[in-house]
Write a structure and sequence with these properties.
The chain has 697 residues and is an alpha+beta fold. The protein is built from 23 helices and 17 strands. α21 packs antiparallel against α22. It is globular, with a radius of gyration of 28 Å. Bound molecules: adenosine-5'-diphosphate and magnesium ion (MG).
Length: 697
């Protein structure tokens, strides 16, 4: 067994491999491409491609693929082998610079929201050299962006890279004002904490709802759920431990810095967190992590559920997006500094984030919107659908002192002057143990906690990067023209706090009184996916994306369509699955059980007319009534599904799903779940919640 330090990153074409295998000159060019975003010329690309191919073949790879992230939310790959025929009937292994840089997957079936007319349905993939190539299952995977021939983004990576450029551009302007001449690039960093469930594969296989939709659509509450909190950080079961060990090894080989793992709140729920990385790499790695979790689980006869709400009544799974901004000189711009100047810079970046979150609450909400996540937000297990920022008492008091020109703290006499005074030290630990805030400052980064577990982190980071870029742009525009920089920065910070403090909330986000308070403050409360998506098309948002060249208006329209359509399709699949399960399994099983009860009563009465049959007859009549109600609810759901067929407009469809289909689904589930509680386990067609949640030992 090799030591971890030996096999870490062994399947990655990383800088040390490149250094060893590339001519010095080419290596230098590649480094400039990776770190400074400089274009790699075609001659150098050919050299890199050849080295990459030799390395991959030595490692047993036979194929390569342009690995990309279409709007389906999962990664896509189409494998091409390296072989190329020779005149003598043999083959040689080839991989050209052109094949490295650009690919043409037949991609006409990926969602495009009407972006690609059929005559140019192919689209192309373009190498993202900032994210390293790797080998997975004998295939050399090249991270790529996916665009139409018109140049429109068809994937999740393209806008993310564009948004990173946007924030780089504006942050550099601001940093220049502070005299940071040595800083040449600024990148955002992300560390996503990933939650998931593990259940036994045999039980999974017996649940159509899990197979088709990733969540249970029926299921009565088990006698025990998460009320004892005895799973959280509890001892990890041997079978799960074996899975985690295997998973870590796979991730480490791919250079993914899996760092912490523990049991989460709900039974069968776990979490994995990596060390943070540059945002687009973190996004690629999280995508890979989710894929490998599912693959490794199967090897252990387990299934890894990434759905946001696999089980009603116990916590669902989220993803915490830890986010910060760093310079190429290694300074974390969200880390309070030691000197007045550093403090002023920190406060300015902090204010940019505060203003961004306030101005673009709607976009942040949209970035976490999905049918699955609608079950969590605001359900007292995840932050509410209202976006707000937690800063902690100390930092809030500092901002208050600046806003009101008052001394900070009881002992201080002097007014807090930005750019002149050093910020009082505040203990890092005090900054955050509030788990209920959607967007919390945690000492040197922000933690955005509204993401669903299955989401790509790209969406949220596109919004964060772009929105903060816009605020930095406004700040730079103002400060670049200031006569007195120090006064200008003080005034700017003061004004920003006063205009945007409504978004700051340090209390309990799960409290109903907060929702009322948030409404008074004029904050948005967009409860569901159809409720929030239309905000994407608002003028201020189109302006934001087009100004920073992150999305064109056409791309925004296409994304809106894709997201709304995906919501409708998903709810539709869930509804159809419920109809299937109810009509083919649940109702027939109950009917059979009721017949058994009736037969039982008849046989007993045959023995003696006055024998006690209360259990059988009570259950029979209760069950029959419920069965009747369930049947009626099933009929209503079927009617709604018929009605749905006549709706073609995606927006109307989304709202129909939310307002008509979902309530009909809930009604059917209500009767079916009650039936489960009175039906003999022997007759019930599916493994129970108890078996699913406590089945892995
Ligand atoms: P915890 O939340 O358990 O206290 P940490 O706050 O140390 O743990 O880290 C949580 C996650 O935040 C980890 O994935 C970590 O890598 C990430 N993280 C830490 N610093 C940064 C940063 N500067 N930028 C982005 N993510 C970060
Ligand atoms: Mg955390």
């Amino acid at each position: 067994m090799k030591a971890l330090s030996e096999y870490f990153g062994e399947n990655v074409f990383n800088e040390s491999v490149m250094k060893a295998r590339l001519p010095k000159e080419t290596f230098k060019l590649v480094q400039r491409t990776i770190h400074d975003g400089k274009r790699l010329d075609s001659a150098a690309a050919a050299v890199v491609a050849n080295a990459m191919k030799d390395w991959a073949i030595e490692k047993g790879a036979t194929h390569y693929t342009h690995w990309f992230q279409p709007m389906t939310g999962i990664t896509a790959e189409k494998h091409d082998s390296f072989i190329s025929p020779t005149p003598d009937g043999k083959v040689i292994m080839e991989f050209s610079g052109k094949e490295l840089i650009q690919g043409e997957p037949d991609a006409s079936s990926f969602p495009s929201g009407g972006l690609r007319a059929t005559f140019e349905a192919r689209g192309y993939t373009a190498w993202d050299p900032t994210s390293l190539a790797f080998i997975k299952d004998g295939v050399l995977c090249i991270p790529t962006a996916f665009c139409s021939y018109g140049g429109e983004a068809l994937d999740k990576k393209t806008p993310l890279l564009r948004s990173m450029e946007a924030i780089n551009r504006q942050a550099l302007r601001v940093l220049k004002l502070f005299g940071n001449e040595d800083v040449t690039s600024v990148k955002t960093t992300v560390g996503p904490e990933q939650e998931y469930f593990l259940i036994d594969k045999e039980m999974y296989d017996r649940r159509k709802d899990l197979i088709y939709t990733g969540r249970t659509l029926f299921g009565a509450k088990p006698p025990k759920g998460q009320e004892l909190d005895d799973h959280y950080f509890g001892v990890i079961k041997p079978r799960v431990q074996a899975f985690m060990k295997d998973l870590n090894e796979e991730l480490w080989k791919l250079g993914i810095l899996a760092k912490t793992e523990h049991n989460e709140v709900a039974p069968a729920q776990h979490e994995l967190a990596p060390v943070f990385a540059t945002t687009n790499i973190a996004a690629d790695h999280n995508q890979l992590t989710m894929e490998i979790m599912q693959k490794v689980a199967k090897r252990h006869n387990l299934v890894c559920l990434l759905h946001e709400k696999p089980f009603a009544g116990v916590n669902g799974s989220g993803k915490h997006n830890n986010w910060s901004i760093s310079t190429n000189t290694g300074v974390n711009l969200l880390e309070p500094g030691e000197t007045p100047y550093e403090n002023a810079q920190f406060l300015l970046f902090l204010c940019a984030v505060i203003k961004a979150v306030d101005d673009y609450q709607d976009l942040l909400r949209i970035s976490v919107a999905s049918a699955g996540n609608d079950h969590r937000l605001g359900a007292n297990e995840a932050p509410p659908a209202v976006v707000s920022i937690f800063l902690g008492t100390e930092l809030s008091e500092i901002l208050e002192a600046i806003e009101n020109d008052t001394p900070y703290g009881a002992k201080e006499k002097e007014l807090l002057r930005v750019g002149v005074h050093v910020l009082p030290k505040f203990p890092k630990d005090a900054t955050d143990r509030n788990r209920t805030s959607p967007f919390a400052f945690t000492g040197n980064k922000f933690e955005f906690r509204m993401l669903g577990s299955s989401a790509s982190v790209s969406g949220s980071n596109v919004i964060l990067n772009t929105a903060v870029a816009e605020e930095l742009k406004q700040f730079a525009d103002e400060l670049e023209n200031a006569d007195n920089f120090e006064n200008a920065i003080h005034d700017l910070i003061k004004r920003t706090i006063s205009e945007h403090k409504r978004i700051i909330f340090n209390g309990n986000g799960y409290d109903d009184s907060w929702i009322a308070e948030a409404e008074k403050r004029g904050l948005l409360n967009l409860k569901t996916t159809p409720d929030c998506l239309p905000y994407f098309l608002e003028k201020k948002n189109i302006d934001l994306f087009t100004t920073h060249k992150v999305f064109t208006e056409t791309e925004i329209n296409s994304r809106y369509e894709i997201l709304m359509e995906a919501y409708g399709k998903l709810i539709n699949i869930e509804a159809l699955t419920m109809v299937d399960m109810a009509s083919k399994d649940i109702l027939p099983a109950v009917s059979k059980y009721l017949k058994a009860l009736a037969d039982g009563i008849a046989s007993k009465k045959a023995v003696s007319a006055d024998i006690d049959c209360t259990y059988e007859s009570d259950t029979l009549s209760k069950g029959s009534a419920l069965l009747g109600s369930a049947y009626k609810a099933l009929g209503v759901l079927e009617e709604k599904l018929d009605e749905e067929k006549n709706i073609s407009d995606v927006t109307k469809l989304g709202f129909f799903c939310k307002d008509d289909l979902i309530p009909a689904m809930e009604e059917l589930r209500k009767y079916a779940d009650t039936l489960e509680t009175i039906t003999s386990a022997e007759y019930w067609p599916y493994p129970s919640y108890g078996e699913l949640l406590f089945g892995v030992r």
